[in-house]
Amino acid sequence: MITKELLKTEIEQLDTKYLELLHQMIQPLKSQTMPPQSLGLLEKLSAVKIVAPPDFSENFEAYLNGEKDF
Hints:
Blueprint: H1 4-13, H2 19-30, H3 41-46, H4 60-65
């Protein structure tokens, strides 16, 4: 994880001719709202909604192979 201290160190080592460019790049980020902590895989999967026929789980392969249509 990148820390503020690490960024400060990198900025201190940056050539001064790039400071204005860096400042311009940072300004739009200040108004951005940060997304909440990223979700884990299981949390993402729990949000998946499948729209399928009632017998989809029993006949998954038939639907996959095209033997049955939605």
